[in-house]
């Protein structure tokens, strides 16, 4: 019995997200590359170097079978990632913006081919630790996690240089759907009676409605109700059939949700923007949802 929701296939979206990113980068002025981003200590140039690192790391590992950097003694996964990411970003400061753009453009289709070869329902090549630590992730969640990584870093660059965009529902909605898979792990410390349901509603053109249910001794993503139209900002979400009456409900807008999930804003700021009802322990846990390794 899976704890995850239905397959979210983001593979067709990688070229579209990349073209939006490349179009953004080609339009930047030299001074834009030095603007600070929400990532501590990283400017725009550093974030783009990090994306390039992600391209190269996944090609090297998934396509070429290269194991990459090794863990230091007693190094945790967050510490390992922070160290290796910082090492590449420092080295990447030797690269010109033009060269990084050319490398992203060149390597992107090769990475698309790696994603296309994935069996979405087989065990993931890399487990998604923010969704579960005791069961294997499905392949689609691993691929989806990578898509969210690229999309989020593009938004961080756009924020830094005051350029809107890449939030059209076709590109953004799958990001929110993948992030919602963190619900069961987010609620893991809250044991409840069999069948208890917690609902997350995200308002906006890319928004949606997701439920987690306590079944067989753990939280699992609940089967979705009937398809719902996007929820306009500021309007109540339509109701769908749930496996049980929700014990807790959290509602927030789409901008708040993705920033909370990636810690672009803090938990208290997200709570101030959210509407909650029902079981206070569950709603408090849901508003700590994290969909990155930290």
UniProtKB/TrEMBL annotation:
Coiled coil: none
Bias (Pro residues): 226-235
InterPro entries, alphabetized: DinB/YfiT-like, Maleyloyr_isom, MDMPI_metal-binding
Region of interest (Disordered), ranges: 223-250
Gene Ontology terms for molecular function: metal ion binding
Pfam families with a match to the protein in the record: MDMPI_N
Residue span, Mycothiol-dependent maleylpyruvate isomerase metal-binding domain: 16-157
Protein name: Uncharacterized protein (TIGR03083 family)
């Amino acid at each position: 019995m899976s704890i995850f929701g239905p397959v979210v296939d983001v593979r067709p979206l990688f070229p579209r997200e990349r073209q939006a990113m490349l179009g953004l980068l080609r339009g930047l002025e030299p001074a834009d590359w030095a603007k600070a981003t929400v990532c501590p200590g990283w400017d725009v140039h550093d974030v783009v170097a990090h994306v390039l690192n992600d391209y190269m790391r996944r090609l090297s590992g998934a396509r070429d079978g290269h194991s990459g950097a090794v863990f230091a003694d007693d190094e945790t996964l967050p510490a390992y990632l922070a160290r290796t990411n910082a090492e590449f970003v420092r080295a990447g400061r030797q690269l010109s913006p033009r060269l990084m753009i050319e490398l992203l453009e060149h390597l992107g289709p090769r990475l698309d081919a790696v994603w296309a070869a994935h069996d979405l329902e087989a065990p993931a090549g890399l487990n998604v630790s923010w969704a579960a630590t005791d069961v294997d992730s499905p392949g689609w969640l691993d691929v989806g996690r990578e898509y969210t990584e690229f999309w989020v870093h593009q938004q961080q660059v756009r924020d830094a240089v005051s350029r809107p965009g890449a939030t059209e529902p076709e590109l953004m909605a799958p990001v929110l759907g993948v992030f919602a898979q963190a619900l069961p792990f987010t609620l893991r410390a809250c044991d409840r009676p069999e069948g208890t349901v917690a609902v997350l509603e995200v308002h906006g053109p890319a928004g949606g409605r997701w439920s987690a249910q306590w079944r067989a001794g753990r939280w699992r993503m609940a089967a979705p109700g009937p398809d719902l139209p996007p929820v306009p900002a500021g309007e109540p979400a339509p109701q769908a059939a749930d496996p049980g009456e929700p014990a807790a409900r959290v509602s927030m807008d789409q901008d708040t949700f993705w920033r909370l999930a990636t810690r672009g804003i803090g938990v208290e700021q997200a709570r101030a923007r959210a509407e909650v009802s029902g079981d206070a322990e569950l709603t408090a846990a849901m508003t700590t949802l994290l969909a990155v390794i930290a």
